[in-house]
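Q: Sequence in, structure out?
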Amino acid sequence: MESGTYPVYGSTGIIGKTDEYKYDGDRILVARVGAHAGQVSSASGKYDVSDNTIIVENKEHYSQYFAYQQLIAANLNKLVFGSGQPLITAGMLKRMYVICPPPVEQEKINAVLKLWDTAIEKQSKLIEKLKLRKRALMQQLLTGKKRLPGFNGEWKKVKLGSIAEIVGGGTPNTNISHYWNGGIPWFTPTEIGKTKYVSESKKTISAHGQNNSSAKILPKGTILFTSRATIGAKAILTVEATTNQGFQSLIVHNNNNNEFIYYYLDIILKNIKQKASGSTFTEISAESMRRTEIIIPPKEEQNAIVSIFVNADKEIELANEKLASLQSQKRGLMQQLLTGKKRVSI
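A: Exactly. Output:
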C-alpha cells in the first residue's frame, strides 16, 4: 500500500495523511470535541478519521444527502456542552428524532435542495474569480508594472514613516471602572480584518481612561494595523477611536491617499512580517514600520488606482450579498422540507 496516500479527517477537516485506511465510501462526519464540535461534514473514497470525529452511517432506506442536510438544519451546536472542552457525543446523536419520509420523497426533496447547492456553488466560484482578479490587479497596479492611461509620472521610494504617523495603542487599568464604558471606541486585534471600514468596537473607554493610559485618539481615516501575534489585519476608521497595544496604526498625511496605503500594505505584508521579532509572540515595532520602504506614485495616480479597487470591492460585496441570500433561501427551504412542514408531490 502506497505511503501517505489516504486523508485523515478530524474536527477541522483533513488533518493529515496515512498509509492505511479504515473507511471506504461515503459517510457523514460530525466533529465530536473542541471549538468545531457539532460541525457536520462528509467524506468519500478511502480515508481514516481521528478519535475526535463521530461517523454517521446511513441505513439503505435513508438517503445520505437527505440525512446530511437534516443534520445541518438541526444545528447540532445546540447540543454541544462544556465550556473548557466543548463536546457532543455519539449517544446524543443516536437519541435524536428526525423525520424520515419514503425514499421517493427523499429523492424529490434532494433534487430541490441540490438546485440551490448548484446555485450557491456557482456564486461561490464567481466570488473567488472576482477576488483573484482583484489580487492580480493589485500586483500590477500597486507595483507600477501596469500604469493607468494618462499617468506616466515617476514613482518615488519613501519610508512609511515619512508619509504617515505610526501610532501604537494602550489599555486603561481594567480595575478602575470609570476608565471604561465612556463612549470612546477601543478596538482589539480580534475585531479587525473582516471589513474594510470600522466604526463600532465591542468595548469603549472614557476620557479618563484614555488620558491615564497610552491609548491615543486616532482620527477618522486612520488605518488600524495589527502588529502582534496575527500581524497585518487592517481596517480604516470612519470615526475617532482608540486601540489596545496590539496595533501600529497609520495616520496617512494629506498628500497621499490613505486608501491607497491601505491596499498597498497587502503588497508589503510579507516584508513587514519578516521584520517581526519576539519570543512569547512575534511583533512588529513602530520603528520597523517607520523604516519600511515603499514605492508610490503621485496622489492623483493613487486616487485613480483606488477607484479601480473600490469598484472591485463593490463587485465582490454585491456577489457576497447574493451568496448570503441564496444560502438564506436554502436554509428556509430546509426548515420546511426536512421537517415535513412542507411536502413535495411524488
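Helices lie at 64-73, 90-94, 103-141, 160-163, 207-211, 258-274, 286-291, 299-337.
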